[in-house]
């Protein structure tokens, strides 16, 4: 049982960890949140039940269960104060009032954030989610405990590295993302050690030294695995639209990092939190118009 003396929202805090509705590693069941993980001590399944606004009941199974339960506070960001921005834009201020339990998760597991982030590079989310689902269902381990059907624990770094190129292709992953993923999984142990050391700058330098890993992928990992509340996903296809409409009343080009950064500057060092609040705001509506990324089924190429 976790009762940190502040409001929590399991769903909103851990929502970014779920890679599409068919993710075999994460499942929402009403107020209950299931997730699998691979801790240093072994695989684990975690069940979180939001029984009150400031109370979460937790159960876990598997060799890594105790280790996962011991790290609940950083996972749920419950050690952080509730988001509070002085002189925030009305949309941000309204979202803070609506979502007081929002926090930034820190899973502590780099590979679990890195592989799906690579799969999401420069493709539609629906296609990336499908590739992740196919790979984990085919090559992951059954989740320990009395879990819902088809839940899996993602493969180990060694198993990812051993997968031949045609397995990635059959899942819908093109050669460029396959090569980037392979480079990442082969240095996974070093990345996990950098993350455990707690030096964000050193971690990001190490991560971005991998060919194919840029600022967007690094931010996606930092905001999930390390709890980096300032990890802005520059380069995200929708970020300019979200920040521009939400804070300035007009779209910003996706590649205008300077303008996006300037709009978010008042929210440093929690710019990622501001982005999440804009995503949750009912007043920030992203119009689905104009050019859209084309779907490509790489399994047929």
From TrEMBL:
Organism lineage string: Bacteria, Bacillati, Actinomycetota, Actinomycetes, Propionibacteriales
Keywords: DNA damage, DNA repair
Name the UniProt record assigns to this protein: DNA-3-methyladenine glycosylase 2 family protein
InterPro entries according to UniProt: Alkylbase_DNA_Glycosylase/TA, DNA_glycosylase
Gene3D superfamilies: Hypothetical protein, domain 2
């Amino acid at each position: 049982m976790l009762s940190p003396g502040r409001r929590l929202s399991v769903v909103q805090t851990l929502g970014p960890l779920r890679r599409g509705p068919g993710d075999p590693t994460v499942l929402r069941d009403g107020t209950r949140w299931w997730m699998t993980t691979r801790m240093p001590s072994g695989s684990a399944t975690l069940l979180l039940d939001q029984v009150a606004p400031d109370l979460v009941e937790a159960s876990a199974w598997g060799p890594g269960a105790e280790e996962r339960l011991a790290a609940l506070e950083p996972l749920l960001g419950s050690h952080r104060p509730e988001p509070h921005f002085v002189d925030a834009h009305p949309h941000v201020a309204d979202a803070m009032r609506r979502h007081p339990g929002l926090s930034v998760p820190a899973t502590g597991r780099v590979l679990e954030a890195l592989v799906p982030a690579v799969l999401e590079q420069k493709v539609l989310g629906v296609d990336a989610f499908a590739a992740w689902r196919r790979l984990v269902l085919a090559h992951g381990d059954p989740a320990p405990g009395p879990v819902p059907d088809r839940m899996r624990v993602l493969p180990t770094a060694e198993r990812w590295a051993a997968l031949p190129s045609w397995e990635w292709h059959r899942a819908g992953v093109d050669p460029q993302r396959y090569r980037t993923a392979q480079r990442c999984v082969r240095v996974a142990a070093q990345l996990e050690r950098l993350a455990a050391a707690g030096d964000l700058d050193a971690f990001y330098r190490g991560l971005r030294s991998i060919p194919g890993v840029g600022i967007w992928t690094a931010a996606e990992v930092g905001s999930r695995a390390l709890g980096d509340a300032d990890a802005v996903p520059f380069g995200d296809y929708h970020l300019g639209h979200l920040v521009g409409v939400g804070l300035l009343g007009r779209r910003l080009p996706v590649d205008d990092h300077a303008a996006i950064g300037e709009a978010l500057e008042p929210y440093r060092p929690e710019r990622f939190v501001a982005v999440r609040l804009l995503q949750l705001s009912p007043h920030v509506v992203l119009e689905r118009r104009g050019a859209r990324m084309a779907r490509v089924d790489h399994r047929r190429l």
